[in-house]
Amino acid sequence: MEEALTHFHDGMTLMAGGFGGVGNPPSLIQGILEKGVRDLTLISNDTAFPHIGIGKLVTEKRVKKVIASHIGSNPNAGAQMTAGELEVEFCPQGILAERVRAGGVGLGGILSDVGIGTIAEKGKQKVVLNGREFLLETPLTAEVSIVHAKKADRFGNLVFDTSARNFNPLVAMAGDITIVEADEIVEIGELSPEEIVTPGVFINFIVQSEGVNWQWAWEK
Amino acid sequence: MGMGEVKETETYRERIARRAAMEVEDGMIINLGIGIPTMVADFIPSDVRVMFHAENGIMGTGPSPKKGEENPMLCNAGGFPVTLATGASFFDSATAFAIIRRGLLDMTILGVLEVSQSGDIANWIVPGKRVPGMGGAMELAQKAKKVMVVTTHLDKNGRSKIVRECSLPLTAKGAADWIITDMAVMQVMPDGLYLREVMYPYCVADVIGATEAELKMDGEVGVFR
């Protein structure tokens, strides 16, 4: 964990897997909070809930810009945006996934018709191809990607936990450095090649998860 | 509960969901939004088999788990724990939206802030007030084969949510096919918005009076009880 934490610094771009907190890596987020890292540009599907996952980074005012599809479940994000403390770039969810994927798979951009006729067009180059109009969507990468896996072997091969997969395999490919937090770390050979979702070649560091350290919104 | 049964204490939300469930056909792939759309699942008869798609990466979500049996990692797109239906699968968010963009969803059921008589949908931003973001709504509204809007007819201030033209930023243009509210069932056709049914105890005049959009009629308007 200590070695992993040396890669987090003020003003960096950080990408996180997860959806409404599910699949956000709890121990890495705790490490970022404790290290005091701030002015982050955060790329993530959403800003989770105020006390859950990456939502804590927003609540603790460590984020200066977020690129996300949704911030509605974290009122702190909305309040900071209204107060001019947090810049928010909204992106339709599937397009966000594809922009992260494009960054992760080394593409220069993608063409999509999602959001044509809405303000999601704003600032985007239009491309006409075979008589159809598309928006040019740019790829996303980050200095560091953080990922939560159910199991990792020591090569970095990953298996995810049910719907905690969500953005994690995409985010895992799109970091200059990718750090995985795994509930269980196993020896090479213990995972079946057939069950591996993310091949370890994308992964730089693996840390042992200490488990979810928050109460879920439905647990009341 | 089957759709034939009507509870004495049925709320308007349940009535909307019960009516929406009647449009669900055997074999459909369906995405349900948060709120009233989620309730639609409870009113689909057991002999109508459908697969529910959740945009966080599940095909085949089942009912809510019993208290104490939740897996916190196994949630729907609203963040609530779910179970799995037989034949369910997990996939990443890119694949979840591949299913949507490729037009493989037979139906999406979603809520709105405004919907226009030409089917324009606005449901993600009230400039300067509430800015939650579009989430997956743009893809869902633009790409699902059938888009069903379920909503209260009026907003909190008593204004019609069924409008001639949306004043709020759009989620998708010309997307809605059916609109089901606590007052009426309406269908968006190429030449305008048609009133198909009124919700008991409202009458046609009530609905027209409460609707800012131009409502057309052809043939008899049914009553849904």
From TrEMBL, chain A:
Q: Which Pfam families match?
A: CoA_trans
For this UniProt entry, the molecular function terms from Gene Ontology, in alphabetical order, are: transferase activity
The record's SMART domains line, in alphabetical order, gives: CoA_trans
Q: Does the keyword Transferase apply?
A: yes
Sorted keywords for this record are: Transferase
Lineage, top-rank taxon, reads: Bacteria
Q: Which segment of the chain is annotated as a signal peptide?
A: none
- Write out the similarity annotation: Belongs to the 3-oxoacid CoA-transferase subunit A family.
**What protein does this entry describe?**
CoA transferase subunit A
UniProtKB/TrEMBL annotation, chain B:
Record-linked Gene3D superfamilies: Glutaconate Coenzyme A-transferase (3.40.1080.10)
Higher taxonomy:
Bacteria, Bacillati, Bacillota, Bacilli, Bacillales
Q: Does DNA-binding appear among the keywords?
A: no
Signal peptide range: none
Q: Which PANTHER family match?
A: ACETATE COA-TRANSFERASE SUBUNIT ALPHA (PTHR13707:SF60), KETOACID-COENZYME A TRANSFERASE (PTHR13707)
Q: Which UniProt keywords apply?
A: Transferase
InterPro entries noted in UniProt: 3-oxoacid_CoA-transf_B, CoA_trans_fam_I, NagB/RpiA_transferase-like
Annotated membrane-spanning segments are none
Presence of the UniProt keyword Nucleotide-binding in the record: no
**Annotated Pfam families:** CoA_trans (PF01144)
Q: Which family does it belong to?
A: Belongs to the 3-oxoacid CoA-transferase subunit B family.
Annotated protein name in UniProt: 3-oxoacid CoA-transferase subunit B
